[in-house]
From TrEMBL:
This is Uncharacterized protein. Belongs to the mitoguardin family. The lineage of its organism: Eukaryota, Metazoa, Spiralia, Lophotrochozoa, Platyhelminthes. Residues 176-204 are annotated as: Disordered. GO terms for biological process: mitochondrial fusion. Pfam families: Miga. It comes from the Eukaryota. It comes from Paragonimus westermani. GO terms for cellular component: mitochondrial outer membrane.
Length: 204
């Protein structure tokens, strides 16, 4: 299995490189750009839908049969892979390339969901909103520690700026309370030291 995948350009054996990249994404790319000979049959207006589907299925199975004959291991990974492809690909090819509009919408929706999931799972969004995808490199995302540190410092600055008004408001409230307490204490002192002036009474 490792030898077969290495010859196909897979450097690391993991779920992303084998299942998602090699199997799923490559299949969607092939279906998005099919050969002209296939399109000339599926887009022909004078041919029946049944004839188009039979011709499309026969083309797929003929290609897979030719690929099986070139395999180095008759019971290896690609032998099982071509069996799976021969079961699933005819239905997908008919949905993407056939005249059925509802099937085409459903297949396009399936592709959009897969692509959106991969963007959310394996892409790292930087500040300028630029994305980099590293395919078949063992790790699907190239993390930039400098950008992560910069984003963390920016978030800390924003939080500090939000805390400064609250701190100043609390400081002003404490100052007002202290001023009122000092005023009360001053009033108490004034009561003890107040001199009451009494006017003299004229003797009659």
């Amino acid at each position: 299995m490792v030898e077969e995948l290495t010859t196909k350009g897979v450097k690391v054996i993991n779920f992303y490189d084998v299942v998602i990249d090699l199997m799923l994404l490559d299949s969607l790319e092939l279906l998005s750009d099919p050969p002209t000979s296939v399109l000339s049959v599926t887009r022909h207006r004078w041919l029946s839908d049944n004839f188009k589907r039979v011709a499309l299925d026969s083309t797929i199975w003929t290609i897979l049969l030719a690929k099986r004959k070139l395999l180095k291991y008759a019971d290896g990974f690609y032998a099982h892979y071509y069996t799976l492809v021969g079961t699933i690909t005819p239905a997908l090819a008919w949905g993407f390339l056939g005249p059925d509009e509802s099937a085409l919408r459903m297949c396009n929706r399936f592709r959009e969901v897969i692509v959106a999931f991969l963007r959310e799972a394996f892409m790292c969004y930087h500040k300028p909103r630029t994305t980099e995808v590293v395919r078949r490199q063992g790790t699907p995302v190239n993390f930039n520690l400098e950008d992560i540190s910069l984003a963390s410092s920016e978030n800390s600055d924003v939080e500090n700026k939000q805390l400064v008004p609250d701190f100043e408001l609390g400081k002003q409230e404490r100052t007002c309370l202290n001023s009122s307490d000092n005023a009360d204490e001053a009033d108490d002192g004034d009561d003890n030291s107040t001199i009451i002036y009494q006017a003299p009474v004229d003797p009659d």
